[in-house]
Amino acid sequence: MVTFRRRSGRTGRRSPTATRNPSRFSRLSLLSALSLLLASLLSALCLLAPPATAHGPKRPAHPERDWLGSTLRDHEHPGPGTPPPPQLASVEGVDVSSHNGNVPWSTLWNSGNRFAYVKATEGTSYTNPSFAQQYNGSYAVGMIRGAYHFALPDNSSGAAQAGYFASHGGGWSRDGRTLPGVLDMEYNPYGPTCYGMSASALVRWIADFFATYKARTGRDAVIYTSTSWWKQCTGNYGGFGSVNPLWVPRYGSSAGELPAGWDYYTFWQYTDTGPTVGDHNRFNGAYSRLQALANG
What we know:
The chain is 31% helix and 17% strand. It has 8 helices and 11 strands. The longest helix has 27 residues, at 22-48. The termini are far apart.
């Protein structure tokens, strides 16, 4: 038995609780309870947070509502889109996305449409669930078809999105019936108009997309953009016009002013309220020139 000498000189057993500090243990208990509460709150927040995708960036909230020109009416307030008079050296066509569902391609063919562009992807996580019916269906009735990508420059790099697009419907083959892919650059449907990026940063992003797409497919991508957005968000950069064909939206009787660097448009989206699918377009040239674009 261990004994301790007290100051008084007497010896005796030491009580096991004699040196404990009740206030100290109360503080420890409180800290433990707070730690458990904090852990519970963190777990709840993790459950509420959106899951990360396999590609890292978050999934866009409403990709089914994003298509060629879907943001124009909120920003540019165009008119109803009176169809312009037909031209001899031009070809009529349409563009579609998942919001069109199963497209009646025979109806469109019989009304004179000879090409179609189909939304394939958005960002690096979304693919159009109606892509097969739309892409293969247009081809089956005889149309020359192509695919487009809805860009989200603040979501991931241009290279990443070009690679995703090329791997999920945006590829190209020299079959005479497949058009080069399209990069859709328009107003941000999820936030700041220019995606919170400077003009120089956006130009670098677009150049990154173009370079990667060409490396993957051998083709220079077409760019879809409005003159107003291009001026506001790229500073009216003029460096792509000599290489990348332009697709310009303007709902009215003419294509109007073009972005810097392009002397002419290749495609013109002249209405979003046309028959059957809404978006109707015109290729600037004879059918033989459209075939030449498909052949590369």
